[in-house]
Amino acid sequence: KQEVTQIPAALSVPEGENLVLNCSFTDSAIYNLQWFRQDPGKGLTSLLLIQSSQREQTSGRLNASLDKSSGRSTLYIAASQPGDSATYLCAVNPFGYSTLTFGKGTMLLVSP
Amino acid sequence: ETGVTQSPTHLIKTRGQQVTLRCSSQSGHNTVSWYQQALGQGPQFIFQYYREEENGRGNFPPRFSGLQFPNYSSELNVNALELDDSALYLCASSIPQGGGTGELFFGEGSRLTVL
């Protein structure tokens, strides 16, 4: 059974810092991995999708990496801003399925 | 191009009642998935519909049921509501790919409170 773990559970940083969020998964047989952002009480916004054959994806100040063999992904946020404050969720798509298995998320607070 | 829309946004029910939640998929997406997110947890997969047929189900009892319509919109029905059913219900649409799924796009969710 695929399990996804996100560390840390919560993170507080001052504005301007670069930061890394971690995601690990137990079964390397994945089709892709997706990072989402969730504001309190809201739905999920897709940030980045990495196919299993890729090593990283970039969008603006966000960079996500994938090491499938070790079961790890990281989300790097450069020059953090207060508007980045949200919960960040990692989800893996097991190979052969069309569902996602989620971690519990990392709650990020960026203070001015 | 319209995104995924869900209704209602909030609702309150009492134990034993029944509820129907609705979802319109993103234009061109033929697959709809439903997830339940309890407070402080990641979303849990309920079930998925592809071309009006159930195409996978998570560890949820039969009182959770669904439908998909020819226009790919979908409903989630929950019978005999329990207190633990209180959660944010998320709908996502996507296009399946050979070995898995394409990118999932989520709606804003329906917040269900069971008293």
Plain-language structure description:
The complex is a heterodimer of chains A (112) and B (115). Chain A is mainly beta and 112 residues long. Chain A has no helices and 11 strands. Chain A has strands at residues 4-7, 10-14, 19-25, 30-38, 44-51, 56-59, 62-67, 72-77, 86-94, 101-102, 106-111. In chain A, a hairpin with a 6-residue loop joins strand 9 (86-94) and strand 10 (101-102). Chain A is globular. Chain A starts with a strand and ends with a strand. The model of chain A has no long low-confidence stretch (mean pLDDT 96). Chain B has 115 residues and is an all-beta fold. Chain B has no helices and 11 strands. Chain B has strands spanning 5-7, 10-13, 19-24, 31-37, 44-50, 53-57, 64-68, 74-78, 87-94, 105-106, 110-114. In chain B, strands 2, 4, 5, 6, 9, 10 and 11 form a 7-stranded mixed β-sheet that branches. In chain B, strands 1-3-8-7 form a 4-stranded antiparallel β-sheet, with no helix packed on it. In chain B, strand 5 and strand 6 (53-57) form a beta hairpin. Chain B is globular. Chain B starts with a strand and ends with a strand. The mean pLDDT of chain B is 94.
Characterize this entry briefly:
Chain A has 112 residues and is mainly beta. Chain A has strands at 4-7, 10-14, 19-25, 30-38, 44-51, 56-59, 62-67, 72-77, 86-94, 101-102, 106-111.
Summary keywords:
heterodimer, A: 112 residues, mainly beta, 5-stranded antiparallel sheet, 11 strands, B: 115 residues, 7-stranded mixed sheet, 4-stranded antiparallel sheet, 0% helix, 50% strand, globular
- SS element count, helices of chain A: 0
Could you report the average pLDDT of chain A, rounded to the nearest whole number? 96
Secondary-structure element order of chain A, N to C: EEEEEEEEEEE
> What spatial form of chain A do the alpha-carbon principal axes imply?
globular
Would you tell me the structural class of the helices and strands of chain B? mainly beta
The DSSP helix count of chain B reads 0
Summarize the biggest pleated sheet of chain A.
6 strands, mixed
Strand count, sense and barrel status of the largest sheet of chain B are:
7 strands, mixed
What structural category characterises the helix and strand content of chain A? mainly beta
If interface size is counted as residues with C-beta under 8 Å from the partner's C-beta, which chains form the largest one? A-B, 28 and 33 residues
What proportion of the residues of chain A is helical, as a percent range? under 10%
